[in-house]
Design a protein that fits this description.
The protein is an alpha+beta fold. It is 31% helix and 25% strand. The longest helix is centred in the N-terminal third of the chain and has 23 residues, at 128-150. The model has no long low-confidence stretch (mean pLDDT 95). Bound molecules: 4-amino-1,4-dioxobutan-2-aminium adenosine-5'-monophosphate (4AD) and magnesium ion. It catalyses: tRNA(Asn) + L-asparagine + ATP = L-asparaginyl-tRNA(Asn) + AMP + diphosphate + H(+).
Length: 454
Amino acid sequence: MQRTLIVHALAAEAPQRQITVCGWIRTRRDAKDFSFVEINDGSCLTNMQCIVDAGTAAHEGLGDASTGASVAVTGELVASPGKGQKWEVRARNVRVFGPADPASFPLQKKRHSDEFLRGIAHLRMRTNKYGAAFRIRSEAARAVHDYFHSQHFSWVHTPILTGSDCEGAGEMFRVTTLPAGEKDLSRDFFGRQANLTVSGQLEAEALALGLGRVYTFGPTFRAENSNTPRHAAEFWMIEPEMAFAELEDIMELGEGLTRHVVDHALTRCESDLKLFDSFVDKGLLDRLKGMLAQPFARVSYRDAIHILEDSGKDFTFPVAFGVDLQTEHERFLAEEHFRRPVIVYDYPREIKAFYMRGNDDGETVAAMDVLVPRIGELIGGSQREERLDKLLARIAEMGQKPEDYWWYLDLRRFGSVPHAGFGMGFERLLMMLTGITNIRDVIPFPRTPGSLEF
Ligand code: 4AD
Ligand code: MG
């Protein structure tokens, strides 16, 4: 089908005798002599205005097509006399692919609530806000790949079905091949218990110890029943892993990645970001630009606790050395204290996963989290325990069986090296980029407790 994307048509340098644009009608106004139809094809935020003169074949083709109908408009691209846009199409021919009954099409021209649109997730990508969000999602993914490739990382693919629990938090979805009602779970996955991965980290470590620098980027699953605006049961995670690297190296990598994606979005998604700055989060653009203007703050966990203790704030969860930071603490640090992203490092070992490298103080591990305003934790990572004896002792201390980690321990037996990596939640990154405050609105079909409809 010969057609011009609206994004290209709007960028034309000269009028054109004939083009065809296809899309969905956003608005239609009928005057005595002509109909004025705005269509959007998803290639950009802006609609193409089309003028369809009354009494013409084009007008007949348009028929009574209304908001939501899909159309192809062929005609002349001419300078638009109205303000706001350079070009419009004077229709010579209009073809309707599929009508949308105005009595039942739910996306009529008015502001709909996020809540309402979540209930029609299969249609909400036809609105300005969600179209923009998913275009930014695509551009952000591209920026992630570009960044890693520019730094000589290989994109690796780790399994989604796995036998191990990387985070040791017991938050895995169990996969079964058994008929409903069957009780013998030991026969789960062709004789083994299989889970959906909570993190590709352990496999990424193996890959990093052969390829040097790797990253994963794919779906990740957590069976935590946390009904919060920041947690989803299925989310996308970016997990770089670097051989011959220490904590400092991944702090730099995490900051570099975040800033690169922000920079890319500011250049490539300008009009979509402006929409969010105007209607969702006033101050978004200033905040994003501010992230490029100065380096992220850094503070040890111990000092962060002191800052929180001295803040005079009445937190719901009290703070003291040894507690896991809650979103309210993370947001206070990033939003109110440092007023920019902050990297917190050297967390108490008691609250962190078994694979994190022990520091010499015996009390903390070489872990770091990147906290950003309005979101809290964007990145969590660590230097990995590369010393076999220390790792074995930690596995025993946590009551785990070394046999379950035989291949992971091999990585420490054969050519072990200092290595480090982190996980960045892709949806959290998008919340940061758009100002959207609910994770359900940055992924097309969210998987959260109670949502499995689409
Ligand atoms: O801090 P987490 O749990 O770290 C790991 O899984 C490590 N294995 C990563 C690594 O070192 N390779 O998760 C990493 C990030 C979090 O900082 C957060 O942004 C995101 O993943 N995340 C979630 N995003 C949405 N919904 C959830 N339920 C999430 N859980 C974690
Ligand atoms: Mg974490």
